[in-house]
Specification:
eight-stranded mixed beta sheet
Length: about 300
Amino acid sequence: MAAAAPGRLRIGFLGVSHSHARAKLDIVRQSDRWELVGTSPPLAPERLLADPTVQVIAVESEVRDHAEHARLALEAGKHVHLEKPPADTLDGLRRLLGLAAQKQRLLQIGYMWRHNPGINAALDAARQGRLGDVFLIRGTINTWIGPEDRAELARFRGGQMFELGCHLIEPVVRLWGRPSRVTSVLRHHGPFDDALADNTVAILEYPKAMAIISSASMQPGAGAHRSFEVLGTKGPAVVRPLEPPELTIAQKRAPLPAYRRYVEEFAALADAVSGVRPLGIPPELDYQVQETLLRA
């Protein structure tokens, strides 16, 4: 493999089958901070992992393989960007976090809206008291999945909530931490002969508030209807749509910076690998998100 270009971080992709892989590959190819070494497939994974010039591995494989592929990359001494959900058990993520600490490697989990300016501004408004006492968060994230793609998700009991609802569970936990109680409704309502939980709701209860997250896989053109609402006694902060984000706070439109999914995510990873700034997400938060997701 060729030597690294001056000033660029060398990255390889272990798996490219996840729906987010293509867009992330485009981000890496277009960035002057990253150099794409290759992807597996077609390269053998052993070749990527054994290359001492590869600093970062992005795991973008099928969900069932996320934890195992991240383990291989960490054991090879690589920093890891890990597509969500990071594992299908709590112990699976616990082992990865422990291995990353042991190897002194970064483990960035790909919750894509950790850098969404609309969601982050809504959370900031709640933290700063601008919404009064927040009593409810309501989030909706639907999609359309054809019959050929449903089998991969049907293997997980949480179905659509596990694979997609996690994106909105994450900011709730980032704001409020571990919920005292989680109640979920996981139903199969689609006209398909499979076991996928394709119409799902999770209720996260806190001492003085709750969050209601819904995710279904039967809505074509669902992007425009995805939303994240933070409701308080002084008014709501509403992000709708989520991409590109539009935010209103107490019925007033709030300006937001330009946003493209994954750009800030990989910029933050490059900064952390280069020692410019830490990732900003402590392992304890990733653990809380995973625990809450599995409870849902």
